[in-house]
Amino acid sequence: MSEPPVTRSSLLLRIRDPQDERAWCEFLEIYTPLVYRLARRKGFQEADAEDLTQEVFRAVASAIDRWDPDPKKGSFRGWLFRISRNLMINSLNSKRRHPQGTGDTGMNQVLEAQPAPADDTALFDEEFKRRMFHWASEQVRAEFRPATWQAFWRTGVEGQPMQEVADSLGMSVGAVYIARCRVMARIKQKIEHVEGE
Q1: Number of domains in the chain
Q2: Looking at the domain assignment, is residue 51 inside a domain?
Q3: Quick check: is 197 in a domain?
């Protein structure tokens, strides 16, 4: 996954219908952690990051009909990032005009010391990849026996040694390796399927 994953077009078309709860649930499941983490990394407190996240998705819901899927104009994720960043800037500007006690006198210094916008885009893309992996993992988890899943998760995600995991699960090292490969292949397949729609 060297190229950043692309948000599938079918989901973007479906969220244009505010009544499509399934599409919105899936969309929010994938993107809420991205926007929230970006806000937290930019220095927003937990409650402010949650509020900002809600504002971003309210803005997306009202503007999704106007989003143009023309690749020359940029990706959906880039559009979502710009909305997020603009709302963060608006929030900070509002707080500067109407300061509120935050208990943290260095808040402005922290925000000003944050990386340039290009770094934010890379962060957003990295968070998207991480979120897609976790989302796909949860989608396919039930397809595997618990020992197979544990072999994958403990060696592939948690980084535990193969021999240690094999011993604790009563498997051979080869069986742990095969389990890890099978689950990872299925996760990749799920991500590719979602991106290809």
Answers
A1: 1
A2: yes
A3: no
